[in-house]
From TrEMBL:
Pfam annotation, one family: 2OG-FeII_Oxy_2
Highest rank taxon of the organism: Bacteria
Protein name, UniProt field: Alpha-ketoglutarate-dependent dioxygenase AlkB
PANTHER family xrefs: ALPHA-KETOGLUTARATE-DEPENDENT DIOXYGENASE ALKB HOMOLOG 3 (PTHR31212:SF4)
MF terms (GO), sorted A to Z: dioxygenase activity
Keywords of the record: Dioxygenase, Oxidoreductase
Stretches assigned to the Fe2OG dioxygenase domain: 92-190
Length: 195
């Protein structure tokens, strides 16, 4: 089965000095994106979370799950997705984080990945499945340049390790209805087997 399309577009958000951050559409076909979305939505043991904010416990506004690549319970769809992303990016990913945004009310606040939890100089790759959602990428230092990306199903956002030093990224809540989306984040974590 061919997973790569010939109708791809590439957008460079940040250069190699502060990034890179690169957005590419059409990394997998719409049919394959739908198939993986359905499989993950149905078969992943999704977790809800809560955290302390403003001196009270609040629900985390999305569902989440994490897998090590060598986890025997890793869903087949994630194993296949990792093979495609590794071929596209060329990084030795060993960790997969999932976020499920159920509707327009789910979000993630602007943040950057914690560098102590990553192998230095290895990229982070985000594969989008399901409904299109807006990601806001904002430079931390002046000028606080902001980019809004519409993350389509089957697209890949590649962020360099050093981009975490210079940019925050987040998925804001929306005022209009939107369907569910799953973000599949591939990372290289220290102290884990690399495949």
């Amino acid at each position: 089965m061919q997973t790569l399309l010939f109708e791809q577009s590439v957008q460079r958000i940040a250069d190699d000095t502060t990034g890179p951050i690169i957005y590419q559409t059409g990394v997998i076909s719409p049919a394959l994106a739908t198939s993986w979305f359905d499989a993950l939505r149905e078969h992943v043991d999704w977790h809800a979370g809560a955290r302390m904010m403003y001196e009270r416990m609040v629900d985390v506004p999305r569902l989440h799950r994490h897998y090590a690549l060598d986890d025997p319970s890793l869903p087949k769809a994630l194993r296949a997705a990792c093979a495609v992303v590794k071929k596209q990016v060329g990084a030795p990913f060993n960790s997969i984080g999932l976020n499920c945004y159920r509707d327009q009310h789910d979000s993630v606040a602007p943040h950057n990945d914690k560098l102590h939890e990553l192998v230095p100089h290895q990229p982070i790759a985000l594969l989008s499945l399901g409904a299109t959602r807006t990601m806001v990428i904002r430079r931390k230092l002046p000028p606080h340049l902001k980019t809004e990306l519409e993350l389509e199903a089957g697209s890949l956002l590649l962020m360099g390790w050093n981009a975490q030093l210079h940019y925050d990224h987040g998925i804001p809540k929306l005022r209009r209805p939107v369907g569910p989306r799953i973000s599949v984040a591939f990372r290289v974590r220290p102290g884990r087997g690399v495949a």
